[in-house]
User: Which sequence fits this backbone?
């Protein structure tokens, strides 16, 4: 199962990569929305963990773009939105795009692992 | 000076001086002189006629005197005439004859003179005398022509002559008697004329007196009485009484004067009424005092503000009425009345009849009479309690606004910092997690330090959440909600320690209230968390009650914690006030802010060591139906 981490903060990217790889996932990372779109275009990710506020293109617009570009039948990328801000309008917009969940920073890493586990189990069940 | 205090400011000193006394004396003298003149004229007219009568009567009397003398002359002449004849008989002197001739002429003259003076009724008597004298003359001539031989005859003739003389004397006496009768008549007439003249004079005097009195009365009625009325009216005006108008029905100058006077009264009345109307209509209270600080005018606005009526105030000392804090000191009206300079905008306190203290803004000025002398003071003031209240409220609002602005700025700063802190915190948390899994778990100290890091991350996160919550007091999005449902929903998300239980006492069928359920959820979580914190060590029960109360729906959250001290209660809702070791003291500030944004109320009561109770009252808005 492939996971993409999209965050402008390198610390966040690095720690999450280590934690998720430790948990047995294949993890890639992008430093902004454009990088994420590019990577998602090249390969399929089961889960994309994405920060909402980033320089350039924000998380929600990135989600929309990835959803628009990758219309692979039968395979759906689940988005988990991470936010440090109370960007309520953006969160609502993201929810209307059909994201899997949103979590507030800082979050216990167990929460991320359990969410990813949840998705993986669902995929396996399918 | 003020006969009727407060009614006016007219002074007796300045009234018209009554002039009718001088005029009265002049007029009476005039009347007297006029009466005397009339008396003289009438007297003159009447006495002229009377004088003629009296004069005629006296003339008649005077006329009788020569007549009487003439009668007596006849007698004397006849007596004298007899004498020569008699003498001739004795002396036989022929000269006697000559004497007789002379005397005869005298008798004739006397007779003629008397005849000419006599009245017709006396004439026969004179004729008889004349006849007798003819006989006497004959006898006398006979006697004197006789000789001695004829003496005897002569003697008898002499005797006859004597008899005739006696007869003549009788006739003369008769004449005298007739004359006396006439004389008496003339005297009577004169006397009557004189008396009548006197009577006329008395009558004229009485008449003139009556006429004079009548004229005097007439003048008095027509001039003096209206003047007296004018004088009385002037006195009344001087006393400030303008109620009566003059009523003089006579025509002429006096009537014109009275009309002018009435015009003056009406004009004064109008002026006073206008001034009084203006004063009475003034919304700000006005009063005036005399030099002794006795109240002379008290406007209706004064009555309304102080509660005193004009009747109970007039003439009383200013300070007895207002009991102001500066009555004994820098009293505005006293200063103005004594110095003559206006005193502006003095802020003082006065007492009303019911002993309320009212702050007022007073301005005073002196009252001057027409000679420019100060006769008192006038003060206008304004109840500034409302203004003061508004100023106080404005100040409070300003302070509140400043505080809000400060809080908003602080909020923006806090929000920005909090958000920025969340990212590194998240990274720290991730790293800690990674380290925890990777580090050699044999070293308990390492494990403990990792736990400390995790705990502090949690605390930091809590602080950030509180700060953000405080900054995020957005406008509530109101929707009708059932409060009991909101409470149940909030409780279901909370995980309370084992030693703390909850008891719900929710009234069924409460009306819906207009609330933002997310914000109220935050409030409930806050209050329940506080309750939990207060009972953390001792344990106990948190009771949540709902009820309808006088158009409101109330939520009461009661704990059995250690309570809040009275000094802390005052600051309970202040930002950053906290008694807890954790948190930054924004929970109740946010709670209150949310509640206020809902137009609701929050109150707290607490007993130290027994527990606290927070009550929130939501107003039941109209057009909101019963909860389903």
Assistant:
């Amino acid at each position: 199962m492939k996971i993409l981490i999209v965050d402008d903060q390198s610390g966040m990217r690095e720690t999450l990569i280590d934690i998720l790889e430790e948990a047995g996932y294949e993890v890639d990372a992008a430093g902004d929305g454009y990088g994420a779109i590019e990577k998602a275009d090249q390969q399929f990710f089961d889960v994309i963990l994405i920060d909402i506020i980033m320089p350039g293109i924000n998380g929600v617009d990135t989600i929309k773009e990835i959803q628009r570009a990758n219309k692979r039948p039968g395979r759906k990328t689940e988005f988990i939105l991470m936010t440090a801000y109370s960007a309520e309008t953006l969160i609502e917009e993201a929810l209307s795009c059909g994201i899997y969940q949103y979590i507030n920073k800082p979050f216990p890493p167990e929460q991320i692992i359990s969410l990813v586990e949840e998705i993986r189990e669902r995929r396996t069940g399918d | 000076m003020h006969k009727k205090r407060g009614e006016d400011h007219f002074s007796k000193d300045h009234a018209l001086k009554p002039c009718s006394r001088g005029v009265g004396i002049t007029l009476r003298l005039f009347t007297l002189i006029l009466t005397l003149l009339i008396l003289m004229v009438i007297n003159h007219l009447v006495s002229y006629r009377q004088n003629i009568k009296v004069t005629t009567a006296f003339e008649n009397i005077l006329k009788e005197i020569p007549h009487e003398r003439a009668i007596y002359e006849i007698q004397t002449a006849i007596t004298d005439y007899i004498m020569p004849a008699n003498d001739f008989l004795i002396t036989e002197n022929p000269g006697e004859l000559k004497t007789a001739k002379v005397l005869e002429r005298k008798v004739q003259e006397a007779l003629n003179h008397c005849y000419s003076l006599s009245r017709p009724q006396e004439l026969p008597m004179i004729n008889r005398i004349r006849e007798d004298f003819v006989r006497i003359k004959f006898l006398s001539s006979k006697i004197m022509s006789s000789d001695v031989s004829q003496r005897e005859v002569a003697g008898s003739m002499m005797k006859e002559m004597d008899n005739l003389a006696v007869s003549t004397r009788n006739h003369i006496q008769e004449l005298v008697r007739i004359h006396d009768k006439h004389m008496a008549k003339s005297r009577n007439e004169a006397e009557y004329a004189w008396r009548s003249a006197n009577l006329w004079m008395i009558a004229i005097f009485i008449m003139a007196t009556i006429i004079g009195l009548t004229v005097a009365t007439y003048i008095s009625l027509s001039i003096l009485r209206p003047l007296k009325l004018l004088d009385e009216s002037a006195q009344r005006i001087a006393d400030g009484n303008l109620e009566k108008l003059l009523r003089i029905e006579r025509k002429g100058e006096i009537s014109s004067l009275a009309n002018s006077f009435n015009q003056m009264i009406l004009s004064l009345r109008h002026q006073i009424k206008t001034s009084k109307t203006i004063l009475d209509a003034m919304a700000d209270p006005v009063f005036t005092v005399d030099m002794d600080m006795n109240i002379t005018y008290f406007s209706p606005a004064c009555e309304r503000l102080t509660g005193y009526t004009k009747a109970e105030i007039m003439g009383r000392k200013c300070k007895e009425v207002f009991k102001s804090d500066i009555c004994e000191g820098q009293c505005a009206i006293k200063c103005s009345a004594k110095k003559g300079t206006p005193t502006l905008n003095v802020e003082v306190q006065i007492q009303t009849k019911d002993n309320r203290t009212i702050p007022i803004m007073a301005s005073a000025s002196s009252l001057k009479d027409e000679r420019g002398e100060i006769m008192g003071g006038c003060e206008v003031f304004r109840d500034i309690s409302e203004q003061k209240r508004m100023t106080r409220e404005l100040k409070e609002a300003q302070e509140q606004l400043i505080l809000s602005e400060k809080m908003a700025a602080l909020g923006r700063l806090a929000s920005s910092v909090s958000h920025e802190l969340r990212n590194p915190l998240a990274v720290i948390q991730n790293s800690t997690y990674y380290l925890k899994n990777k580090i050699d778990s044999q070293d308990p100290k390492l494990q403990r330090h990792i736990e400390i890091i995790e705990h502090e991350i949690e605390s930091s996160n809590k602080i950030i959440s509180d700060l953000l919550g405080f900054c995020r007091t957005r406008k509530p999005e109101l929707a009708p909600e059932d409060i009991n449902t909101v409470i149940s929903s909030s409780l279901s998300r909370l995980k309370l320690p084992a030693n703390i239980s909850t008891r719900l006492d929710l009234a069924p069928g409460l009306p819906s209230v207009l609330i933002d359920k997310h914000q109220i959820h935050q409030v409930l979580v806050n209050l329940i968390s506080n309750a939990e914190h207060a009972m953390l060590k001792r344990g106990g029960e948190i009771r949540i009650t709902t009820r309808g109360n006088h158009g409101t729906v109330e939520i009461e959250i009661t704990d059995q914690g250690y309570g809040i001290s009275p000094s802390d209660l005052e600051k309970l809702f202040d930002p950053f006030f906290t008694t807890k070791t954790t948190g930054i003291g924004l929970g109740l500030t946010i709670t209150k802010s949310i509640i206020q944004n809902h137009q609701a109320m929050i109150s707290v009561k607490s007993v130290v060591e027994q527990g606290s109770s927070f009550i929130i009252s939501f107003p039941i808005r109209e057009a909101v139906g019963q909860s389903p």
